[in-house]
Amino acid sequence: MTSIEITPEEQSALVKALTDALNPLATAVRSRETGLPEDRMWHGDPAEVALSVLAAWKVVDTEVKRLTAIAAGTAGSYGASYEQLGAAWGITRQGARKKWPDARPAAQPGRLELFGGTAELVRDAESGGWRWTGVGADGALGAADRGHPAKEEAAAHAGAFLKEHAAD
Predict the structure, then answer these.
(1) Closest CA to 41 of 21, 19, 24, 22
(2) Strand partners, 120
(3) Which pLDDT tens digit goes with each residue over 37-67?
(4) 150 falls in which pLDDT band (50, 70, 90)?
(5) Exposure of 17 by Cβ count < 10 A (0-12 exposed, 13-18 middle, 19+ buried)?
(6) What share of the chain is helix, strand, coil (3-state, %, to 5)?
(7) Gap between the Cα atoms of 18 and 93, Å rounded
(8) How far apart are the first and last CA of the chain?
(9) What predicted TM-score, i.e. pTM, was given to this entire model?
């Protein structure tokens, strides 16, 4: 998915909707700060009035960032990758990871998600070693042919399998 473009008409409608939504907030903030009734609150030093509007936009900006993070987290919870999140926002995968570090669910203990595939690491009850089973991005199934003494070793073998069976 790439960043979307909007038409000039859509942009005009968006500006109007945002301004209409901002005005009651700016009015309330300015009234509280000056103690003036709402019908007189716009009277005064033009710089102070403009700063009140700027302060209201800051509140809106903070709320948009919060809602954006929620949308990114929702997309991530449904499986969107950081690459996809970045593409939707017009930034790199790394930029998306930095912008929304919690957008993707944390990896489950004993689960690897690499190269488009997944692998599960489990302790073998009989030997006490570690085994893995995996599905590559190409649909190939794999499993440890023996138990590994350490979880990290099993993970390394599972990772090698997932890399070998990455999507093109």
Answers:
(1) 24
(2) 111, 133
(3) 877 777 778 888 888 889 999 999 999 999 9
(4) confident
(5) exposed
(6) 50, 10, 35
(7) 29
(8) 19
(9) 0.58
